[in-house]
Amino acid sequence: MKKILALLLVASILLCFGACGKSGGDDTTAAPAGDAGEQTVPTGVEDGVLTVAMECAYAPYNWSQADDSNGAVPIKDSNEYANGYDVMTAKQICEANGWELEIVRLDWDSLVPAVQTGQVDAVIAGQSMTEDRMEMVDFAGPYLYASIVCLTKSDGKFANAASIADLKGGSCTSQLGTIWYDSCLPQIEGADVKEAKSDAPAMLMALETGDVDFVCTDMPTAQGAVIVYPDMKILDFEGENGFKVDEGEINIGISVMKGNNFLKDKINEVLAGKTADDFNNLMAEAIKVQPISD
């Protein structure tokens, strides 16, 4: 009798394990069969929603506006809408994968931590794919190649500068936590580098109001700026006359949680079919519809 009870107990345990195994196979927090086998973190899109963080204050990459014109998307917990190159890119990724898009507005310094903690699934916010960031998050992309330039006043003393050497003695700033401020401005010998600004609009306002002689940024940001501020001029120094940057500093990527191979691969599948011209054409569309008041 004891042997029979023991056999029944073993059978019950085996059935239990079998049921648990089936449940694990249906668990959408794991990567589906055929995807990265070592996925150890949630994919983030189990609910069919891709939650993306950005500043919503970094035109033409992203900005906020009062309505849904030009395909803008609602900002979570807000009465405003987000649009721009990053939103347009996020929409393409979601359409290709059948996901809904949710936009979350965060400060620049909060973007990487939000991905690391799972607060958001991805950051699409004009982030350079630097080595430091790649130690904290994984990157899909690039989804844009952005050269580094300076902006100055058209009637200012540096308007005819032909190299970064010609900016010697000028006062300058850029956005906090960017390669523009941390890596590029220090390359200008004799520059008077002022305190970094919290975001791109503050950086541009410092130039517009005469607080600094020039600012350092990337080409898309500069192209958007000269539409808003026609009195500004782009200084595009090429080759030996320009800034020394590595490939990761001009490659703009989409960050996801470390180990989220499933989401990274799904995003890369969408980006893989695009060329630099495709990226530039979409950026041109974003610049064309950005609010002048941004």
Uncertain residue segments? 1-36
CATH fold-level label of the largest domain: D-Maltodextrin-Binding Protein, domain 2
Order of strands across the main sheet = 6-1-7-14-8
In the CATH hierarchy, the architecture of the largest domain is 3-Layer(aba) Sandwich
Helix- and strand-based class? alpha/beta
Considering DSSP H and I runs of 4 or more, what fraction of the residues is helical?
25-40%
Which CATH class of the largest domain? Alpha Beta
Largest sheet properties: 5 strands, mixed
Structural commentary:
This protein has 294 residues and is of the alpha/beta class. The chain folds into two domains: 49-146 and 251-289, Periplasmic binding protein-like II (D-Maltodextrin-Binding Protein, domain 2), CATH 3.40.190; 148-235, 3-Layer(aba) Sandwich (D-Maltodextrin-Binding Protein, domain 2), CATH 3.40.190. 35% of the residues lie in helices and 22% in strands. The protein is built from ten helices and 14 strands. The strands form three sheets. A five-stranded mixed sheet has the order 6-1-7-14-8. A five-stranded mixed sheet has the order 11-10-12-9-13. Helix 2 crosses helix 9. The radius of gyration is 24 Å and the shape is globular. Mean pLDDT is 89; it is low at 1-36.
Key traits:
294 residues, alpha/beta, D-Maltodextrin-Binding Protein, domain 2, 2 domains, 35% helix, 22% strand, globular
Topology:
Elements: H1 2-26, E1 49-54, E2 57-58, E3 62-65, E4 73-74, E5 81-83, H2 85-97, E6 100-105, H3 111-116, E7 122-128, H4 131-134, E8 138-145, E9 148-153, E10 171-173, H5 179-184, E11 192-193, H6 200-208, E12 214-218, H7 219-228, E13 232-235, H8 247-250, E14 251-256, H9 261-271, H10 276-289
Parallel strand pairs: 1-6, 1-7, 10-11, 10-12
Antiparallel strand pairs: 2-3, 3-5, 4-5, 7-14, 8-14, 9-12, 9-13
